[in-house]
């Protein structure tokens, strides 16, 4: 259990995340600008921009996976997020159903076919969300169950063999937490992909702009609240 190593992983990811957010702001500006162009050239630019934005999100997920496999505990209460942002977390990230709320506030004039496809996706996403929530609840229960906490309580006595048993139990928990996090990220990724398959390029740009704006606004509010508490 290396605290210095954990701190290094947290600092490295925080540095990556802050840079990623700067690029997120730039992409948000470009998405808003792209909505003003409705000619043929504009549509082509929108499609190119969509690919760039999706690649930007994919980069985040790749870096997150690499860091989480080294120290998964960080991603269930990330020190690089504000308390307000942490309060919105679901299994180490955003709740996939949030995507449908953002869509409802951004993409207008959906066709009946689109609405039908989105409703099917909603049901599918909600079902998988419930399964993951139940799995995560079981993991949380295990964290507070014997023998883990019992071993922690008795650790002061340094009874022979208990330290290795504690480490083994912790390793088992971490494996379960990594698995839950990666399943949740897989659901987040697949929900976005399937949702975008139902939308036109213009609708997709509106949706991506609304998603980026939501994240940046939550970040801004969180920082403001922490600043207010500090002063």
TrEMBL record:
Cited Pfam families: DOG1
GO MF, any single term: sequence-specific DNA binding
GO annotation terms (biological process): DNA-templated transcription
Coiled coil: none
InterPro entries, per database record: Seed_Dev/Stress_Resp_Reg (IPR051886), TGA_domain (IPR025422)
Organism superkingdom: Eukaryota
Domain DOG1: 10-228
Protein name: DOG1 domain-containing protein
Biological source species: Hibiscus trionum (Flower of an hour)
């Amino acid at each position: 259990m290396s605290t210095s190593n954990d701190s290094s992983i947290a600092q490295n990811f925080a540095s990556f995340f802050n840079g990623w957010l700067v690029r997120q702001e730039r992409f948000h500006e470009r998405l808003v600008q792209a909505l003003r162009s409705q000619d043929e050239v504009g549509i082509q630019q929108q499609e190119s921009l969509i690919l760039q934005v999706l690649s930007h999100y994919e980069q985040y997920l790749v870096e997150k996976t690499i860091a989480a496999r080294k120290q998964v505990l960080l991603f269930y209460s990330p020190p690089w997020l504000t308390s307000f942002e942490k309060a919105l977390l679901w299994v180490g990230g955003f709740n996939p159903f949030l995507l449908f709320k953002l869509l409802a506030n951004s993409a207008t004039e959906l066709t009946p076919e689109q609405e039908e496809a989105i409703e099917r996706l909603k049901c599918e996403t909600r079902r998988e969300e419930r399964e993951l929530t139940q799995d995560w609840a079981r993991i949380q229960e295990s964290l507070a169950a014997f023998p883990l906490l019992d071993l922690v309580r008795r650790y002061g006595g340094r009874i022979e063999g208990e330290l290795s048993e504690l480490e083994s139990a912790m390793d088992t928990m971490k494996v379960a937490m990594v698995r839950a996090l990666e399943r949740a990220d897989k659901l987040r990724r697949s929900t976005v992909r399937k949702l975008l398959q139902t939308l036109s390029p213009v609708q997709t740009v509106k949706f991506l702009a609304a998603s980026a704006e939501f994240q940046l606004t939550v970040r801004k509010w969180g920082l403001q609240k922490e600043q207010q508490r500090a002063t």
